[in-house]
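> @MW can you paste both from yesterday?
MW: sure, first one:
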Amino acid sequence: MQHRKNSHVFWSYIFLIAVAVGGLFWIFQKGKTLAVADPSFTSMLGSAAHDQINSLLQVLLALAVVIIMAQVMGALFQLLGQPLVIGEVVGGILLGPSFLGTYAPKVQTMLISESTLPFLGIIAQIGVVFYMFVVGLELDLKVLKKSGLTALVIAHSGILLPMVLGAYFALLVFQDLSVPGVPFSQFALFLGISLSVTAFPVLARILSDKKLNKTPLGNMALTSAAIGDVTAWCLLALLVSVAQDAFGNVIRTTGLTLLYIGSMFLLGGPLMRRLIPWLEKFDRITQGGIAAFFVALLLSALATEVIGIHAIFGAFLLGAITPHDSRVATALTERVEDLVRIVFLPAFFAFTGMRTQFNALNSTSDWNWCLVLIGLATLGKFGGTFLSAKWSGFSWKDSSALGILMNTRGLVELIVLNLGLDLKLISQRLFTMLVIMALVTTFATSPLLALLRIRPNSNSP
């Protein structure tokens, strides 16, 4: 009985195939009598489809290579006691023209060709937008309010001195390292901001690894870094608005920026504090709730981009007004962070690496300026933080530790530098010098802290 049933199914299947093949044969025969489309048009469509497939293959290969390199170099640098981000940045630079492009250009062309750079650039930009949203989610505004005057003084001292030294460095190198047509004021302000940045997420990771994040020293470092970075981002937003617009539009852009920031905190903040408890009534945060946040993230990023600053500011603001300790913030971080850190950020590092050209520093003078830049960046950040911390009652040891921690730049610095290069505020040579400065100052943090022998039982105020 079963055998007869199987035989019936088999012959039914053969019949269906025969009918389908016969039907297709008849349709194609009839189609031959129809008018032929413009051959140049069909050829163009075929060429476009072929190019699209080739581009997809190249981007997929490039992303795979970038992720593998980031994981390998990140793990290697973690073994050396360095933050993961340092290895990922170095991995991106190794894939760029300074190393792979110099010693194995054919391999680099095969793995990451010039045609993939625009695609990597878009992926990197999207990744940075989502990353800044996560940074905003990690920012605890309640801690900022509780820390009072001490954290504010330490944070702004760690901004003002590097900003003055950055402007002074701009005065020294403006004739040699600036881009033609860039006003000195914009050039100097950008360099000042570049030397003032602290990488809040990298700093948080270092403190967590060393079990200092729950100590008074760690709390003060995180709070000061958060205040400093918010201030630096506001200054950078102002600079971007000035750089992108004609003078007559600067007031409009600045006014819209301030209006948007005020609206986010005065209207968006209270709305968020009402929305979050409603979402948390459910057992788990639904996909619809997550989708709503992503739409809000994209619209906020779009708004700041349309205003004339940059999409990253809108993403950061939305994260900042989201309650830091809510289940929604935790769920958003968990769902976004892995994808951003594993896929998007390595693409950003590779994109930065492709733009970092060590061979652009082709003279002793260039390398001397690079050393001066590293020295001024360290002196400004360490000196400003150390003096204000000591003045605020911290011990010599903990004041030194705070200065070292504030000198951590890392990924946030690279975001600022890429923005400056995109806006043509800095030259390729100066961009490379600033990338080296960011790497050196971040690399130095862990070894210098180890020399101070800072322990989790610090008793500083």
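MW: second:
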Amino acid sequence: MTGWRARIGFLVPPGNPTAEPEMAELVPAGVSVHVTRMPVSAAAG
């Protein structure tokens, strides 16, 4: 992509609703943020 400086990816815990907007505010122009939530599964026991 012409004009883009970087792409940053994050794995976010499901209980954190503020990570995505905070990261989008912190990056400089030309940097894209890609976020995915980690799945929740039952603990093996």
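> thanks! The chain has a mean pLDDT of 84.
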